[in-house]
Amino acid sequence: MRLEPRAHPPLALTLAAPVAAAALALLICALPLAWAGAPVLAAYGRILQGALGSVFALTETLARATPLILTGLAAAVAFRAKLWNIGAEGQLYAGALAAVAVGSGALGLSGLLLMPAVVLVGALAGALLLLVPALLKVRLGVDEVVTTLLLNFVVLLFVQMMLEGPLQDPMGMGWPQSPPVLPEAELPELLPRTRLHLGLVIALVLAGLAWLYTTRTVFGFEARAVGANVEAARYAGMPVARVLLRTALISGALAGIAGASEVAGLKGYLTQDLSPGFGYAGIVVAMLAQLNPLGCIASALFVAGVFVGADSMSRALGVSSYLANLIVATALLTMLLATLVTRYRLRRS
Amino acid sequence: MEGVIDILLSAAFWAAAVRIATPLILGTLGELLCERAGVLNLGIEGIMTAGAMSGWLAVYQGADLWTGVAIAAAVGMAFGLLHGVFTVPLGLSQHVTGIGITLLATSLAYFTYRMVLPEATSPPRIEPFPPLAIPWLSDLPFVGAVLFRQTALTWLALGLVVLVAWVLYQTPLGLAVRAVGESPAAAEAQGIDVYAVRIGAVMAGSALMAVGGAFLTMSAFNAFFFEMIAGRGWICIALVVFASWRPGKALLGALLFGAFDAFQVRLQQEVVEIGLPYQVFLMLPYLLSIGALIAVSRRAAYPQALMVPYRKGER
Amino acid sequence: MGVPVERSAPEESMSGPVLRLAGITRRFGDVLANDGISLELAVGEILALLGENGAGKTTLMNVLFGHYLADSGTIEVAGSDGALRPLRPGAPRAALDAGIGMVHQHFALADNLSALDNVVLGTEPLLRPLRHRVAARERIKALMARSGLTVDLDAPIRALSVGERQRVEILKALYRDARILILDEPTAVLTPQETDELFVILQGLAARGLAIVFISHKLGEVLALSRRIVVLRAGKVVAGLLTGEAGREQLAELMVGRPVPPTVREPLDPGRPVLELEDVDVDHADGRPSLREVTLAVREREIVGIAGVAGNGQAGLADLLSGLLRVSRGTVRLCGEDARTWQPATFAARRIARIPEDRERHGVIAEMSIWENLALADRQRPEVQRLGWLRRGAMRARAGHIMATYDVRAQGPDAKVGLLSGGNMQKLILGRELERDPPFILADQPTRGLDVGAVADVHRRLLAARAQGAGILLISEDLDELLAIADRIAVLHRGRLSAALPTEQLSVRALGLMMAHAA
User: Fold this and answer.
1) Last residue of a domain, one of C437, C470, C493
2) Is there a domain that residue C160 lies in?
3) How many domains does chain B have?
4) Residue C371 is part of which domain span?
5) Which domains are delineated in chain A?
6) Alpha helix (H) ranges present in C239-376?
7) Which of A218, A229, A233 minimises the CB distance to C366?
8) In C185-272, at which residue ranges do the beta strands (DSSP E only) sit?
C-alpha cells in the first residue's frame, strides 16, 4: 500500500473534504464536551438551534459571518501567494480605528459620502499596515510571519492608547470606548430589528471580486504563480516584489474593511474587544475553503454558526463558550488532514 | 539622564532582567531545537499557554511544584507530537499546522481552565517557586542579588542552555539533528531515521516551550490569566533568528531582551512626567523584536531544509 | 554499533557472489521502473549497469540501498563468512550494516557540516553522550592514504569542489567498511582528467576486494572501467556480457532497442551576431566571482557550445543570459541592443528563448496546468490577455497546438505539469520557447536526464531552429553532445572562456585537455 499523488482531485472530493473536516471536528470536540459533564447530543442540538433555529438566530450567524468572510478572504488572497499574513487581527483593528476616526466626525468630516469614505479608509488603514511587513520581506528578506504577528500586539496597544486618549468618547463616562459613528456613516441594517447590516453585502461582493481576480485576471495569475514556485515565476519575468506588495495591499485592505464593517455596521463604536479573534479565525475560514474566495462564504458561515451557537449553548448549559474556539481550531487541523485525501490516493502495491 | 544610569546600575533591575528573560530562554531554546531539525513550530505561543495553564492547574489540584513542571513538559510534548506527526510523515504545511496548534492549545487551555473554575472572578493563586537562597553566594554584593536569588526554574533554564549546546555540538544525536535540518537526504543515506529525529526534536523543543510558559504561572506570577503569554512565543521565534540558531547566542539575546523589557517597565514608573501613555512602553518589546529581525535578516543562515517537508522515496 | 573495526580481506574467505538480486520489481504509478530484474556481483568485480536515462538503473540501486521498497523480489548480501543472507529491504541502515555503500548522483551531503562530520554522521549510536572525533579522524586519514582519496576534513562541504565532494561520498562508504560500492553516474560532474583519476582509484579498491557497481549511460567509460556489463532497457535486463566481448554499436543498440540514426548537422553560413559578450565580468549575488574577461559571439545560424563541468562559471553565464544576474564589467549585446540592464521579462519580450538547466525549479510551475505554464512569460501578450483578463479559451487552444506540434504526451491542456515525465516536460519547455521564433536561444543542459529518443528530439529541434536563422548558445557537460551538434566549442574553466574553436578541429581528448589546463 502506498500513497501516490493524484493527477486531478475529483470535484466531489474537493467539495466533500471541508464538510468531512467540519464533521470530524465536531465529533472530536464531543470529547471535551463530555469531559465538562455536558450532555453531548443536547449540547450540539443547542448549538444548531442557536445558530440556525430562528430568523433571529440566522441573522446573528450572518452578522457574525460578515467579518469572517472578509478576514477569510484576506488570508486566502495572501496565502495563495505564499504571503503568510497572520496579522489580519491587527489590520482589522487598524481599519476599525480609521473608520471610527472618520465616521464619528472626530476629524470634522460629514455628509453623504461619509459611509463609503468610512469603508475606504478602513481598507486603506489595513492595507498600509500590512505593507510594512511586506516591504520588509521584499526589500530585506525579513520573514513576514513574525512581523505580522508582532504588529497585532502593537496595534492593539495603539488602539487602547487611542481609546484612553484622543479617541475617547467624551460622553462615555470614562470607559475606554470611542464616540459613536455618525448616523450618515452607519452601514444600514438589512432587516429591521436585527443586527444584519450592509457589511454582509459588501463581503459577498468582495468574495465574488476576489474569485474573479484570482482565477480570471493576469494579476491573480501572477499571484498564484509566485505562490506556487517563486523562482520559476521570477525566471519567467514576473515582477515578484511588485506582485507580493500588490497582494499585501489587497489582503490588508480586506481585513481593514472587516474592521470598518464591524464598527460602522454592527457595534457603532470601537472598544478594545471588538474582535474575538476574527483575524485568526479567518485563517481557518480560508483553509476550510481551500483558499477559494467563493468557498470562504460557506466556511465563514460554518465558523460563525459555531460561535453563535456555542454562545447560546453556553448560556443554556453552562459549558464554556471556548468550546467554539476549540471546534474551530480542531477544524483547521482536520481540514489539513482532509487535504491529504484530496491530494493523494492509496494504491495497492 | 541620571535616571537611566541609576536604573542600569541597580541590582534589582538586572535581577528583573534575568527573571523576565527566563521564559524567553526556554521558549527560544525549544524553537531552536525544532528549527535546527528543519521544522518551524508556530505552535509555540499556544504551547506556552498550555504549559502555563497545566502546570498551574496541577499545583492548584495539589501536586508539588516539580510535578507541575513535569506535567507542563508532558503537555508540551503531546502538542509537539501532534505537530510533528502532521508536518513530518504527513508533510503538511508547517505554517498552517503551527497556527492550528496555537489555536488548539490556547483554546484547550482556556476551556479547561473555565471548566475547572467556572465562576472565578479573580484568578486563584498557588504557592510559586521560592527564590533559591544559596548560602554565602546569595550574599555577594550585586551578583548575589541578581543571580543567586532567582528561582529554581531560572537555574533550570540556564542549565538547559548548556545541555542543549552540548547535545547539539558534542553528541552524535546533535550531529544527526543538525544534519536532518540541513540535508535530510544526507542523514537518510547514512542510515538515520529522519522522521524519528525530527519528531523527537519537535517534542523535546515543545516540552521546553511549555516549561517556559509554566515559569510564568509557577515562578514569576502565581496565577493563570488569559492572554498572559502576550506574544512571548512570537518573540522567541524572532530571537531564534537573531541568535543564528545557536544556544549561546539565544541566551544572550533573551537576556538582552529581558534587560530591555525590565528597562521599559522602570521607565514607565520613572518617566511619567513626559506624559507618554504607558502603552507606548508596552509596545517597545514587540518593536524591538521586529528591529532585531531586520538587523540580522541579511546574514540569516537558515537551516537549509527548514520548512521543506522530506518525503521518503520521492527522488 | 561501536567504532567500526577493520574486517579481514574478504577475498580470502569468499568464493561465491557477494550480492544477488532476484526478480526485483518496482512500479511508480503507471510506470514499471524495474521489471523482474536479477543480477549477481562477485568479489572485486567492477560491474557496469548500463542503460539510457529512464531505464531503471537508479531505481534499482535505490531499492538495493533501501531508499525504496521493491514491490517484489529478493536481495541477498554475503556476510564476512561468504554466505549469502537476505537483506532487510527498505532501510538504508540495513544496507549499510550489510556492507553496501552508495555514492549518489546528487551527493547526499550536509552543506553546513564539515567533511569529517559527514563521514562520521550516523556511524555512532545516537544515545552515546560523546563523539569520538579523534579516533574517527585517525581512521579516515588512514583510509585516505590507502585509497588515494584526499580531502580537507575540516572544510564545510559548501566550500568543496564537486570532485572533492565526490571523494567525501566515497570515503563515507569506505569508513563503514563497505564491501559493495554503488556509484550512480559518477562521471557526470567530472572532467575527463578527474574521470581518469577516479577510475584509477576504483580499480585500486576493486583489486583489494571491493565489489563495485557503477551506473552509467556513457559507453566509453563503461568499456574502459568495467569487467562485466548488464544492460537495462525499460526496466528489464536485456543483456549481460563481459566487457571484453562487447562492442560500442552493439551496446548502443542494446541500450535503446533500435538503431539510432545519428544527428546530422549540415554546415551553414553564419550571419550577423545575435549575442556579443565583450570582456564580461560577472559575480554571483553573494559576491563570489563567476566569470572573468569573457568574450564571446554567437551568430545567426550557428550553435556555439560551452564545455566544462559544473562550478566553472556556467551558472553565472546562464543567469546572465536569463536576466537574473548583471555584469560588473564589460558589455552584453543581444540582437544589437545593449542588454546590460535587461530583466527576465525583457528577454521574453524580445522573443529570446531560454531553456533552464533545472527545469522543475525554473522552467515550469509543477502545480499549474500545461496551458498556464505556457503563458508564464508571455502573459502580457494580446494572445493571452485582454485588458488584464486572461483569455482562457485562447490559451487552451494554444496549448493544444503546442502539445501536438511538439509531441507532448499528457492527458490534455489541463493536466498538471508536475506529473509529466522529464522528457515531456522538456518538450513542453522547448515548445513554449521555440514557438516564439526566437533570434537567440540559451540552452542550458537541455538533454540532462532525458532518454535517447528525447535527446535526439531536442537535438533535432535545436538544429531546426538553427536552420531557421537562430543563434544558439549550448551549455553542456556532455562532450559527445557538443561534438555532435555544435558548430564551435569553447571551454569554461574557472570563469574564463577559451577561444571558440570549430568542432571539426576538436575531440573529447582535446576538450578534456582544455578543461584541465586553463585554456
Assistant:
1) C437
2) no
3) 1
4) 360-437
5) 2-347 (1.10.3470)
6) 248-256, 314-320, 344-349, 370-373
7) A229
8) 211-216, 228-233, 236-242
**Do C301 and C397 share a domain, yes or no?**
no
Task: Give all chains having 3 or more CB-to-CB distances under 8 Å with chain A.
Answer: B, C
C146, part of any domain: no
Pick from B104, B280, B300: CB nearest A333: B104
Bridge partner residues of C42 (DSSP): C17
Residues C77, C184 within the same domain: yes
Q: Quick check: A234 and C344 CB within 8 A? A: yes
End-to-end CA distance of chain B: 63
| Rg from Cα positions in chain B | 20
DSSP run (H or E) holding C287: none
- Considering the domain boundaries, does residue B125 fall inside one? no
C481 and C370: one domain?
no
Looking at C437, C461, C490, the residue that finishes a domain is: C437
Verify that C430 and C442 share a domain, yes or no.
Answer: no
The reply to whether C113 touches chain B by the CB within 8 Å rule is yes
pLDDT digits (tens, 9 = 90+) for C115-172: 999 999 999 988 888 888 999 999 999 999 988 888 999 999 988 988 899 999 999 9
Q: Which residues pair with C502 in a beta bridge?
A: C488
The grid coordinates of residue C283 equal: 559575480
Residue found by looking up cell 541477498 in the block:
C76
In chain A, the residue whose alpha carbon lies closest to the alpha carbon of B114 is A320
Q: Which of A7, A217, A228 sits opposite C419 (nearest CB)?
A: A7
Residue C31 resides in a domain: yes
C489 and C406 in a single domain? The answer is no
Phi then psi for C2, rounded to 5 degrees?
Answer: 80, 170
- Per CB-CB distance under 8 Å, the chain B contacts of A149 are 231, 234
Contacts 24+ apart (CB under 8 A), C492-495: C492/C306, C492/C307, C492/C308, C492/C312, C492/C313, C492/C314, C492/C317, C493/C308, C493/C312, C493/C517, C493/C518, C493/C519, C494/C312, C494/C313, C494/C518, C495/C289, C495/C290, C495/C291, C495/C292, C495/C294, C495/C312, C495/C313, C495/C316
Residue C342 is which amino acid? W
Query: Could you tell me the CATH number of the domain that includes residue C180?
Result: 3.40.50.300
> How do the pLDDT tens digits run along chain A, 349 residues long?
667 778 778 889 999 999 999 999 999 999 999 998 889 999 999 999 999 999 999 999 999 999 999 999 999 999 999 999 999 999 999 999 999 999 887 676 677 788 899 999 999 999 999 999 999 999 999 999 999 999 999 999 999 999 998 888 888 788 889 989 888 888 988 888 888 999 999 999 999 999 999 999 999 999 999 999 999 999 999 999 999 999 999 999 999 999 999 999 999 999 999 999 999 999 999 999 999 999 999 999 999 999 999 999 999 998 998 999 999 999 999 999 999 989 888 876 5
Domain count, chain C: 3
Reading the block at residue C267, the C-alpha cell is: 554546415
What pLDDT band is residue B2 in, cutting at 50, 70 and 90? low
Answer yes or no: do B188 and C120 touch at CB < 8 A: no
Query: Do C395 and C266 lie in a common domain?
Result: no
Q: Which three cell numbers stand for residue B310?
A: 522530506
Q: Are the Cβ atoms of A165 and B277 closer than 8 angstroms?
A: yes
Same domain, C443 and C519: yes
Q: Match 549510536 to its residue by C-alpha cell.
A: C125
Asked whether residue C170 is assigned to any structural domain, the reply reads: no
> Residue B263 is part of which domain span?
2-119+133-297
Interface confidence (ipTM) of the complex: 0.94
Residue B279: CATH number of its domain? 1.10.3470
The rounded distance, in Å, linking the Cα atoms of C172 and C182 is 12
* C104 and C184 both lie in a single domain: yes
Q: Does C174 touch chain B (CB under 8 A)?
A: no
Residue A4's region, left for phi above 0, alpha for psi from -120 to 50, else beta, is beta
Residues C185 and C215 sit within 8 Å (Cβ to Cβ)? yes
Identify whether the C-beta of residue B72 lies closer than 8 Å to the C-beta of residue B211. Answer: yes
